Amino acid sequence: MTEPRPGPETAAVYAGLEPAMRRALREAREAFGDEEVPVGAVVLDGSGEIIGTGRNDRERSADPTGHAEIVAMRAAAASLGTWRLSGCALVVTLEPCTMCAGASVQARLGRLVYGAVDPKAGAVGSLWDVVRDRRLNHRPEVIAGVLADECGALLTEFFAHRRVR
After folding, report:
1. Helix H segments across 39-97?
2. Please, which pLDDT band fits residue 5 given cuts at 50, 70 and 90?
3. Which one of 27, 69, 141, 150 is the catalytic residue?
């Protein structure tokens, strides 16, 4: 579940995103504690301030759209008072699925950052590549693999824990 390590030219970009990814990891750990699949997300405004946070809550809320990305984007939109998240960055611990990748495009996010790849359902390059589809009207910048090992390890631990029960 990990991406290749960045080269020296992108190491500074990754380092700058680590604090936000660590916050997303805290959200993911909270989801784990709630027995939800441990995915966490934050939305940063143009100055890098967190304006929305989210974690998976499908089980608790009985909401099929209760993915961390959707929860965080809703919070950010409420904070800004608009659905347009232009200039904002979504930072999430796991590569978004088709629903969340599509919502990222629809929200006009400027950047999408994720940690671990999702070869089974990822829609930002693994299984599909929704956000880079030239037929769509918006394509956010994508940065993959930030703290990928930590993000992937949390998911591995969660599913190993579930198998033991």
Report:
1. 58-61, 68-80
2. low
3. 69
Q: How far apart are CA 150 and CA 165, in angstroms?
A: 23
The pLDDT, as a whole number, for residue 162 is 82
pTM metric for this prediction: 0.92
Cα dihedral value 14, 19, 25, 29, nearest 10:
160
Residues 90-117: b if buried by 16+ CB within 10 A, e if exposed? bbbbbbbbebbbbbbbebbbbbbbbbbb
Q: How many helices (H) and strands (E) does the chain have?
A: 5, 5
The binding site for Zn(2+) consists of 67, 97, 100
Residue 59 is among the residues annotated as catalytic for this protein: no
CB of 78 closer than 8 Å to CB of 89: no
13-70 pLDDT tens trace:
888 999 999 999 999 999 999 999 999 999 999 999 999 999 999 999 999 999 999 9
